[in-house]
Amino acid sequence: MKILDIERMNDNAIADHRKCVQSCRERLQFVLDYSGIPSYNALAKRLGLKRAENLYQILKGNNGISSDLALRINRAFPDIGIGWLKSGCGSPLPLSPPEPGGCMGMGMSMRAERNEIPLYADLRFLVAGDTDPEPDSMLPFPNCLCPDAELATLCRTDALAPRIMPGAYILLHRVASDDILYGGIYFISTRSYQLCRIVRQDDAPDRLRLLSTHPEKFGELVILRSDILTLYHVCGTFHRMDD
Questions:
Q1: Measuring CA to CA, how many Å separate 68 from each of 18, 47, 152, 219, 232?
Q2: Euclidean distance between CA atoms 99 and 121, whole angstroms
Q3: The whole model's pTM is what?
Q4: How many angstroms separate the CA atoms of 152 and 235, rounded?
Q5: N or C: which end of the chain has fewer CB within 10 A?
Q6: Structural Rg of the chain based on CA atoms
Q7: Is 35 helix (H, G, I), strand (E, B) or coil?
């Protein structure tokens, strides 16, 4: 299996992994209390779920909070961080109210309005179907810069340079294949490989073209939509500057 070239981050590249102290049940109870919604059935409707059974399975300890559910909660209640929903680490809410001008205005505001994004050195769990893996660490990141980010990883391939350089952090947001914006960069996971590529439309509606910025080195791939196990939009990238 060919896997996207990922390297494990060192202590200078990531924050210390904070102790997780809140269970999935406690996190879900917090969401209900924060929302002011009277019941889990009503909360399920607010989140666009057909049934509340998934929420009750979480309360019973049978299920964790999936990326899809975390994203639904964050969309309904943007102050509740996706990283906290997924891990229970850190604070569920921003540490201070936003200042005029947003996080690009005052530096202090940018540091305070942070979300903690699960950071993975290896994304092969997507192939195995693990919906709630333990992250290698949590990446503090200004929430207003990339509010849709669900998870992060690190790339050292030059297949998309200079758009994504080796060593860049990649911020990912899960989408359906029908929601692809052609020309955007996506992380595609199939049973045969995982990779980031520019996605283009194919003549056949059931296929997609995957392109690199260096076609002489990384040839074009054509895949069936049905072969995609998991699809993430690359909603942001950045390099951490050394102190």
A1: 23, 10, 15, 32, 12
A2: 34
A3: 0.58
A4: 10
A5: C
A6: 19
A7: helix
C-alpha distances (whole Å) from 204 to each of 126, 224, 226 are: 27, 9, 13
Per-residue pLDDT at 100: 46
Token code pair at residue 197: 């590529």
The kind and range of the H/E element at 25 are helix 24-35
Q: Is residue 198 within 8 Å of residue 133, measured between CB atoms?
A: no
Token duo for residue 180: 């692809």
- The pLDDT, as a whole number, for residue 112 is 43
CA distance 9 to 121: 7
Tell me how far apart the alpha carbons of residues 3 and 26 are, in angstroms, rounded to a whole number: 35
What is the per-residue pLDDT for 126? Answer: 82
d(CA 56, CA 231): 27
Q: Output the six-digit token pair for 59.
A: 């309360």
| CA atoms of 24 and 39, how far apart (whole Å) | 17
CB neighbour list of residue 123: distance below 8 Å, 6 or more residues apart: 3, 4, 6, 153, 187, 189, 194
Which 3 state secondary structure label does DSSP give 29? Answer: helix
Query: How many alpha carbons lie under 13 Å from residue 187 in its C-beta half-sphere?
Result: 32
> pLDDT means per 10 residues in the chain (243 residues)?
33 35 83 86 90 90 86 86 79 58 45 73 81 82 78 89 87 88 91 92 94 92 94 85 48
